[in-house]
Predict the structure.
Amino acid sequence: MKLSELLRLECVRAGSTADDKALALCEIAALAKRSPICRNVTEEDILEALQDRETLGATAFGHGIAIPHCRMRGVHDFVLGLMTVPQGVDFEAEDGQKVRLLVFIIAPREESNTHIRLLSALSQLLQDADAVAQMIAARSNKKLAEVFMDAAGQDIQTVEPMLRSLVHIFIQDESAFKRILDVVSGMESISLSIVDAQNARGYLAHNPLYAGFAQNGDASTCKVIAAVIERQLCNEVIRRIEGVTGSLFACMGVMVTVQDLVYSAGALEM
């Protein structure tokens, strides 16, 4: 899918006179509500979702541009819209510049991966200073949409990537580390990296309060294996590790954590 195919023409406005951020968000909510995709949510719902997102951090990213966005239940597809404010509006940008071009997204609650890719594609497109300048200068909604669609030729990957999990294996036993690395690295579709760490005792011993513990065993190193793997193979990873350690619930010196990833792309060389 292309960015240009996601733009909803009914959600384009050139020449807003909004003079503060609150009013700009109100206008964006009203624009978004024009789309049939938002028929199951109210304008007030959209505004509240946009405001909630802004409380997490300003969506202005400098050079007079902002991408207000939110995810909502009741929205079944993406609503991408445009609004220009020629005189500029304070959107709390880090560079202090007033925002003159707003590209907004109302996204389905469940489509977080596609939402991330859409934000990435927009941020790349909006690095084209000439296209941005032409959009800001557009005198009509039609011209604003045309300039955007001419610039927005790139495809957005909309097929969901394979579900993956992040596995951390913390190992304090050097011999166990070598055996665990051997059995885990032999698995297919796995990306591994290894981090050298140190047991907490090594750091605490530098604090006079805990200095006495330096005498109770050495401050041995610890290795951390970080592995990204297909979610369906997590049980197999744990089975292989327990083939080395025995039951992890009765193990001292090895700890395993598993986290499901919201987004994962790319791979690492072994």
Summary: Residues 172 and 222 are 5 Å apart (CA to CA). The two ends are 33 Å apart (CA to CA). The longest helix spans residues 43-56.
